[in-house]
Design a protein that fits this description.
By secondary structure, this protein is an alpha/beta fold. The protein has two domains: 5-209, Spore Coat Polysaccharide Biosynthesis Protein SpsA, Chain A; 223-342, no CATH class. The protein contains 13 helices and ten strands. The longest helix is centred in the last third of the chain and has 24 residues, at 222-245.
Length: 344
């Protein structure tokens, strides 16, 4: 008999954390017939493998060469049999009763592809718990541009240890491109939005922020921040391609992705520099995202202004000028032009 749920745990050099993660899964109150546990050790070089082995034979322990989060998810899903897939990173953990609540929500809402919930972000250095999540049950999807913009704002609620999805969704996502050494969970998260995800207000998991996080890094660590941006850029490409496969309308995909893509590009160009053409493309996309109903004349006016500024100035200088423009509130003149152009 196939299990109802498979917990897929990806881990790499988590000797300080993996036992807490495994205990939190095995103490969910489900029988071995109901809950399958698959742990993918992505080439750990510390004591992680021996700690995992302490829990055998209650779990499947897959050891592989280090390849990153996407390769670990692909390997873990290939070994899974459950109709519900619950991913968890090896440095995070679940609250007791999480799976029971999530299973009930999935059974009670057959139209959604996934269920997520509030969670605590645990800052290890300060031992501070930060609550992340909605105040009431919230349905996130990409059915319309407005819904997609709401999902773009709130998709932080879909942390890996919080989101649980149906197997048929994972079958449409896997394999995840293995160039996503981290941020591979973005593909699962966004795919769940294509089918609709219900987010519950109960905090039922813990996301740990620590010095070895690949995504939650200190902005002062320039090399790590650059790597994070490069991986973010790769994830955007993978997610956009996946949304096309899932037949999400382009206007909805753009409404969801553009705000985050624009913000990430601006950060990279200001911090690390780049090509003038990339600055131009970023600001043109920002304009299209903000002014859907602009007249042809106003579009041409903005293309000329943005083209002259972004293609003549190095990115860092352009964004210094852009910041000065905002500080001086010179946007009021553009708003005046917009009103004139849209009424003529």
């Amino acid at each position: 008999m196939k299990p109802l749920v498979t917990a897929v745990i990806d881990t790499y050099n988590h000797e300080r954390y993996i036992e807490q993660a495994l205990v939190s899964v095995l103490e969910q109150g489900l029988s071995p017939q109901e809950l399958e546990v698959v742990v993918v050790d992505d080439g750990s070089t510390d004591k992680t493998p021996s700690i995992i082995q302490k829990f055998a034979p209650r779990l499947k322990h897959i050891r592989k060469k280090n390849g990153g989060q996407a390769s670990a998810f692909n390997a873990g899903f290939a070994e899974s049999r459950g109709q519900i897939i619950a991913p968890l990173d090896g440095d995070d953990w679940w609250a007791k009763g999480k799976l029971a609540v999530v299973i009930d929500a999935l059974e009670g809402n057959p139209e959604v592809s996934g269920v997520s919930h509030s969670y605590y972000k645990f800052h290890e250095a300060s031992e501070h718990f930060e609550l992340v999540g909605p105040q009431a049950p919230t349905l996130l999807n990409l059915s319309t541009p407005d819904a997609a913009r709401l999902a773009s704002r709130d998709w932080v609620f879909l942390a890996t240890g919080a989101l649980t999805v149906r197997r048929d969704l994972m079958e449409r996502v896997i394999p995840i491109p293995e160039k996503l050494v981290f941020l591979a969970d973005a593909c699962i998260n966004v795919a769940s939005l294509a089918g609709g995800t219900l987010v519950l207000p109960q905090p039922l998991s813990y996301y740990r922020v620590h010095s070895d996080n690949r995504f939650a890094v200190d902005p002062a660590e320039v090399a790590k921040m650059r790597r994070r941006y490069d991986m973010t850029d790769a994830a955007f490409g993978a997610v956009r391609a996946m949304l096309r496969r899932l037949a999400v309308p382009e206007e909805c995909a753009s409404a969801f992705l553009d705000p985050v893509w624009i913000s990430a590009n601006r950060y990279c160009l200001q911090s690390f520099g780049g090509s003038r053409l990339k600055t131009f493309r970023t600001e043109i996309r920002s304009f299209h995202s903000s002014y859907k109903n602009a007249t042809l004349g106003y579009r041409i006016f903005n293309y000329i202004v943005l083209g002259c500024a972004s293609l003549l100035l190095p990115p860092r200088r352009f964004y210094q000028l852009y910041g000065w423009y905002g500080q001086k509130n010179l946007g009021r003149f553009r708003k005046w032009i917009v009103r004139r152009k849209m009424t003529t």
